[in-house]
Amino acid sequence: MSLDQNQIDVYKEKVGEVGASLVTSGMKVGLGSGSTSACVVRALGRRWQEEGLRFIGVPTSEETARLAQSFGIELSTLGKCPELDLDIDGADEVTRQGFHLIKGLGGALLREKIVRYAAKRFVVVVDERKMVDNLGDHTPVPVEVSTFGWEATAKHLEKIGAEISIRYKKVSVRFKEDCEDFFITDGGNMILDCNFGLVNDPVKLGQSINDIVGVMENGLFIDCTDEVLIAGQNGIQHLRK
Fold first, then answer.
1. Any idea which residues are catalytic in this one (predicted)?
2. Residues noted as catalytic
3. Torsions phi, psi of 210, nearest 5?
């Protein structure tokens, strides 16, 4: 599907507004990371300032926290709010059947997954380019790993079929031995982008990845999505399980 950047930006803003409309006063809300999630936060910020909407946000990244704070949104942590009413986040791929996800190209996958499982309801906001029949269609599986011994962790990931690219601060390039310019997550870990091709059994693959010592978490979000908002040429689709 070929869309210019202006169209994509319009789609993201529209789906962000619809996502933000799900928040009501008094809620405790997980605030996702990435460009589409930022549209949700901006829409929530406008509602905060113009409508007097009041809720507590738990951000999944430092970048999201800074954006929310710029609007005056009240923020908290899972330590103070261990149970959330709603979590709204984006995704890099969403399957049309089952709403399985790949997340983490923005680098916040561990915190995103922790926040998701603290929420009673998980809503994903995407544009129509992100919808796929099988995970791995055009996106690698991000894997967050400890910086200590990451080389050994990478070798084990290769043994289960991963073609690995290290995430650098600017770009992700083919695995090489020495580089000091790694992308480091808010939690102090590295990201290894792992291409497994089409993922036919995401549950098995996710377990195999997480069984490797040194892996913090993987970007497969399986059977955990309640609703998907999809922006496209036909407006906003609101899909529920």
1. 112
2. 112
3. -70, -15
| Tens-place pLDDT, residues 50-90 | 999 999 999 999 999 999 999 999 999 999 999 999 999 99
SS3 124: strand
| Angle, CA 69 vertex, CA 63 and CA 75 arms, to 5° | 95
Residue 105 among known ligand-binding residues: yes
Is 33 known as a binding-site position?
A: yes
Q: Is 90 annotated as a binding residue?
A: yes
92 has binding-site annotation: yes
Query: What domains can you pick out in the chain, each with its CATH number?
Result: 5-133+222-233 (3.40.50.1360), 141-216 (3.30.70.260)
Has this prediction a pTM greater than 0.90?
yes
CA gyration radius, the chain: 18
**Distance (Å, rounded) from C-alpha 98 to C-alpha 48?**
33
